[in-house]
Amino acid sequence: MSRYAEVYDTWKKNPESFWAEAARDVSWYKLWDKVLDPYAGQYGRWFVGAECNTAYNCLDRHVEAGHGARTALIYDSPVTGTKQSYTYAQLTEEVAALSAVLLDVGVRKGDRVIVYMPMIAEAVMAMLACARIGAVHSVVFGGFASAELATRINDAKPVAILTASCGIETARVIPYKPLLDKAIELSEHKPSACLVLQRPQVAANLINGRDHDWGASVSAAKAAGRKAGCAAVAATDPLYILYTSGTTGQPKGVLRDNGGHMVALKWTMKNFYDIAPGEVFWAASDVGWVVGHSYICYAPLLHGATTLVYEGKPVGTPDAGAFWRVISEHKVVALFTAPTAFRAIKKEDPSGDLIKNYDLTKLRTLFLAGERADPETIKWAEAKLNVPVIDHWWQTETGWAIAGNPVGLGKMPVKYGSPTVPMPGFDLQVLDEKHQPVGPNQNGTLAIKLPLPPGCLPTLWGNDERFRNSYLADFPGYYSTSDAGYRDEDGYVYVMARTDDVINVAGHRLSTGQMEEVVAQHKDIAECAVIGVHDDMKGQLPAGFVVLNAGVARDAKDIEAEVVKLVRDVIGPVAAFKNVMVVKRLPKTRSGKILRGTMRQIADGESWKMPATIDDPAILDEIGEVLKSRGMAHAPAKSA
Ligand code: COA
Ligand code: AMP
């Protein structure tokens, strides 16, 4: 029997006492004056008046409790053939020395630090070193290009940037330093220092006076016995900024605080993921995404568990058995990844033969998130791994699961296609256009009644107004998730689609609006539309439709290739923008709005209705023809 209903009810009856109780699992320098101050911030603030340090709770606290010899972090890198473990005592040493170096290069409490790093142990050390001295990190995913990095530098205004000489994508070595130098050149704000970790694969050029050698600086600090202490910060002070895609080219700087974040994440480790301190928890994501922040770095360490930093892919490093090797070798009890990773494995090894080569007896649960978990993938994983497969739904903004199946409270029956039920803290409603809750099995916007629970974003970095407009304005009294869906008669949640321009490509959140802004920069393009079309492996893929300026007589193929390159250069390879089609015109309403929704339905082979307000119905047939000629229409498109 699951204790979920009882625990959810306890929270609902008294949210403040529920979170105050959970907060006992965290170590505080000073307790709070108020668990929740409903008048502070944009919708209230948690643990107001309290003081704490997140890195202390992740590291020193465990060492002081006598667990210094326990493994804190395992780095496993098939792309470099490296495996290395750090105990809690060793990781604390490393982080304390790196913090001292940060202080040396001028970083102070409240300053921002950008972290642009591959999946290596030092990326986690960088995050924790910032947290230790009360600096605010902003990790930028390695697959973003210089211009994207520059946008974040301009917005966060970092004092320092931490990077490595390269990242490794399967067999491709990507020098990071030239990308970083170009980003700094492009940005108006200039950091005063860069700390560069030289990896053996590539030596980065260091600029005199600005760049410092990471290894040499940390070694010198260690040799001199220099360690930074843990700074006391307000529970409401920012821990990090994580930029995520919105509807425009300007990404949203999701802000996370210290106190509420620790309380919520710590609670999830036992109650949601069913992990005990000392067990190995593996989130096969990237530190550049929210899953990496919450479940590679912070939550496992807050809980005294062992986290795993994996520098590799589910396939190709070297084969589709990579995940099974890591699980068996490191005795992983829970794996957390995106469904797309499993689709990639299934494609290479459909019968799961490689699984048989490894001992997976320690694995208890597979957790999936980042995109809708399609029932086929869940069933395949269940059959091949013989463990419960748990879908859960969350967003960069919330930092932890809005809805899921809380294994730690006792697993509930799985309904395929549903991430199960809302977690304590989330009063989830399905609202119609008039802001009213709808009944079971009726579609609407999934909205969370304010206040959001601890751990969720209190606002956007430096932009309260954008926070209110993006999340609070549409449904007064609620946070709008921008996801549409429904709840069934048992209260199970179904998340069906985004209501904005955000698409999900291989578990990566991207903005079609942003891609349109970039495509429109091409000199020969008059107008364009980018939509997300269904892809069996990656979930969705962006597809661009472009109309050329009058009189452009160049070969369409050349222009299409230039547009692909432009998006890759400006946003980065992660955009996976490879499909561009020159079309004569775009379908529009009589008032000039591009009918992106209908175009997507045609591409996905869904039945669609001719919009009553369409300007010229023939254009939709033209779009269908172009898609068919590129093999991109999933089924014959026809209007209903
Ligand atoms: N640095 C530089 N480039 C990167 C990168 C990084 N950190 N991450 C991805 N890229 C590049 C890829 O090499 C690829 O380049 P290419 O166009 O030259 O081939 C491009 O960006 C697109 O990457 P992706 O969409 O990830 O495709 P892929 O074929 O490399 O990998 C998967 C497909 C499914 C294996 C991979 O996307 C995956 O493991 N996804 C899981 C995502 C995830 O964990 N999300 C977090 C939520 S849990
Ligand atoms: P991100 O901010 O990158 O975590 O992306 C958040 C978005 O991914 C959500 O708003 C959803 O659209 C989608 N998403 C994440 N997890 C799930 C899930 N389990 N089921 C359905 N959609 C999901």
Helix and strand arrangement:
Layout: H1 4-13, H2 15-22, E1 34-37, E2 45-48, E3 51-52, H3 54-58, H4 60-67, E4 71-77, E5 82-87, H5 88-104, E6 112-116, H6 121-133, E7 136-139, H7 146-156, E8 160-164, E9 166-169, E10 172-175, H8 177-186, E11 193-197, E12 211-213, H9 214-223, E13 233-234, E14 238-244, E15 252-257, H10 259-271, E16 280-283, H11 290-302, E17 306-310, H12 322-330, E18 332-337, H13 339-348, E19 365-368, H14 375-385, E20 389-391, E21 403-404, E22 421-422, E23 428-431, E24 444-449, H15 464-472, E25 478-487, E26 493-498, E27 502-505, E28 508-511, H16 512-519, E29 525-535, E30 539-548, H17 556-570, E31 579-582, H18 596-603, H19 618-629
Parallel strand pairs: 4-17, 6-7, 6-8, 8-11, 11-12, 16-17, 16-18, 18-19, 19-20, 30-31
Antiparallel strand pairs: 1-2, 3-13, 4-5, 9-10, 14-15, 21-22, 23-24, 24-25, 25-26, 27-28, 29-30
The structure holds coenzyme A and adenosine monophosphate.
Adenosine monophosphate (AMP) is lined by residues 244, 290, 369-373, 391-396, 419, 481, 483, 495, 498, 504, 509.
